[in-house]
Specification:
globular, 3-stranded antiparallel sheet, 2 domains, Arc Repressor Mutant, subunit A, alpha+beta, ADP-ribosylation fold
Length: 276
């Protein structure tokens, strides 16, 4: 999907730990989904959650809180990030570069990109970044969830970034409903005519597995999805957006708050570090 690529390792949709199989690479879950063997333990579900929040916060919203330098396209040196987390957050002295790489490569929604020792978030930014080096979207229809109060305003004035630097679109009605339910119980869905927009040189980029970004969408490309039977399909618990997937105002991972410590004792933590 991305112009800068890396080796893709086997992953599972759901899992409560992060591990590494010697043969098939990083995975989430109790065992490798390819060979069903138990690999090397890397981190627990709590550590995944805590570090994931920090990664999302630093790469998307507030790198200055940990003193991390971000370039114009959102790239951060992984080694510098690991050092910053180790210094700025207690309980992360075990963190190594491969832990960050493992989280990025097993992310279910393609929120991160790795290249040459660098990492970035591919969408969700509130900091100033340019994402024009992402691949152009290959599909011709996009969807966006709104509330009753917003729909007439958007149909008249178009879509503009509000709490993020880019407008974020979904590649399907189902994913738009999923994203919309973070804000309202019954989202209305708008359709964006991507084919017509691209004919007019509107650039829409493929930023995640089901996420597309653009600077703005003019009202002439937007219409309302009228088939409510599709819009009203229930979203399962597994499909609900994670904390990192919510809007920045709802997410706001707190890098000043101490993370949950590993369940093991201090002596066992040291042993775990030696294994890493």
């Amino acid at each position: 999907m991305n112009t800068k690529t890396y080796t893709c390792y086997a992953i599972t949709e759901l899992g409560n730990m992060l591990g590494k199989c010697d043969e098939h690479g990083y995975y989430r879950g109790e065992t490798c989904p390819v060979c069903n063997k138990k690999g090397k333990f890397l981190m627990s579900d709590r550590e995944l959650d805590s570090l994931g929040r920090i990664m999302a916060g630093v790469l998307r919203h507030f790198p200055e809180k940990l003193g991390v330098n971000v370039d114009g396209h959102g790239w951060v040196d992984i080694s510098a990030f690991v050092d910053a987390v180790g210094i700025g957050r207690s309980g992360f002295n075990w963190l190594r570069e491969f832990h960050v790489e493992a989280i990025a490569l097993t992310d279910q929604k393609g929120r991160y990109q790795i290249d040459g020792g660098m990492i970035r978030a591919t969408y969700g930014h509130t900091i100033d970044v340019r994402l024009d080096d992402l691949p152009a979207a290959e599909i011709d229809a996009f969807y966006y969830p709104v509330t009753e109060e917003e729909i007439d305003i958007i149909l008249e004035g178009g879509l503009n970034p509000i709490d993020r630097k880019y407008v974020h679109l979904s590649g399907s009605i189902e994913k738009a409903v999923e994203a919309g339910k973070v804000r309202t119980q019954d989202p209305l869905i708008l359709r964006i005519d991507g084919a017509k927009a691209k004919e007019d040189n509107v650039m829409i980029y493929h930023a995640g597995k089901d996420v597309y970004v653009t600077e703005r969408i003019d009202a002439k490309y937007i219409s309302k999805v009228t088939d409510q039977s599709i819009v009203e399909q229930p979203v399962s618990v597994e499909e609900q957006p994670s904390v990192e997937e919510q809007s920045p105002g709802e997410e706001q991972p707190n890098v000043d708050k101490k993370p949950k410590k590993r369940k093991s004792t201090k002596k066992k933590t040291k042993k775990s570090e030696e294994k890493d």
